Every structure is written in C-alpha cells, then in structure tokens.
Amino acid sequence: MTSLAPAVTVVRTSTANLASVLTGLERIGCRVHTTAEPREVAAADRLVLPGVGAFAAAHRAIAAHGLADSLRDRIERGRPTLGICLGMQLMASGSEEAPGVPGLGVIGGMVEGYESGEEGWRVPQMGWNLVTPHEDCRIIPRGHAYFANSYRLATVPDGWHPVWCEYAGRFLAGVERGPVVGCQFHPELSGDYGRALLTRWLEA
Prior knowledge:
alpha/beta, nine-stranded mixed β-sheet, 12 strands, 26% helix, globular
C-alpha cells in the first residue's frame, strides 16, 4: 500500500509565475491545489506563497481576496508555509519599492533595494549564487540557488534563523522558523538543490 502524495496549496496572488511553482512541486510528487480563498489558506496542511513582480501589486491582490489575516495567522501559529521570492518579501513589514504599503509584518524589518551600479553589480541579481544557512537551520541547505531579485532583506528578524548570501553586500537569502520558511531565491528553478529543499520542507 503506497502512502498518499503530500498535498500543497499554492496562493494565487495574480503576481506569481504559478506554472514553474506548480511544476516544481508536481515533480517531487505533490498533489497541488491553487486558491485565493481565505478559509482554504487558513486550513491548508502546507501552503506556498509565491510571487514575482511588484510589491504593491501583490499587496493589492492579497487585500482584494481578504487573505492577509489568514496568511498572518497561520504563519504566527507555525503552520507549514513557504514564501518564495516576492512571497518572502510580503512577509516583511514593508518594502522600499512601495513606501507606505504594508507587508504582513510577520518578519520584522523592511525590504531594501540594491545600490545599482556600485562596484559593477547589476540590478536585478539574475542567476546562481551560494546560499549559506545558520547552523540551526533544518530546511534550507547550503548550496547554489537561482535568484531573480532587485530587493532584499539585509538584517536578521527577531525569532528567525537566517540564511545568508553575498551580492552587493550581505543579505538574507532566506529565513526559517520551524516549518515556516522564506526563500528570496526560487527553489522551483534551482535544480537538485531546490528539490532537496522542497522535500525537506514537505517533511518538516
């Protein structure tokens, strides 16, 4: 008798590249469901908050569907949740990209922009970079992951284990707090490294 494939719910924010996220999860054997319903977000066994594009547009989509309270509550209660790229940034207090637009506030601190052009750094960061987790991290491994970002968190939020990366200075490639994980990079586009991370998260 085979065990049932793990079920993962993916939030539809209208600013996410859902195809790559869904494909990445399906490749490791997940049963994937997408939703923009607050009750389903709250009840999901495992939830992914993806995102690409603009912080303000993603905030508007979350507000339009009334998802903020459900997302905030499950993260604060430690329910398995994975924020990817802009999804991780939305977990912060806000972003320099959209002054005055609030994030979910479950990760303390503001998302900051890179200084374009300094010492030859190109913005956005596009490509592979080394990810180095804190010794207490259990889900994000050390290795090379794929990034596509113009903004990032640079300071460690209280109560979270940091995952570091270097690009135009040190910044947070990710954060962990139990089964709640934020990744500034794209695990679904990061080959074997990303599959290993997603598998660890599913098993957390």
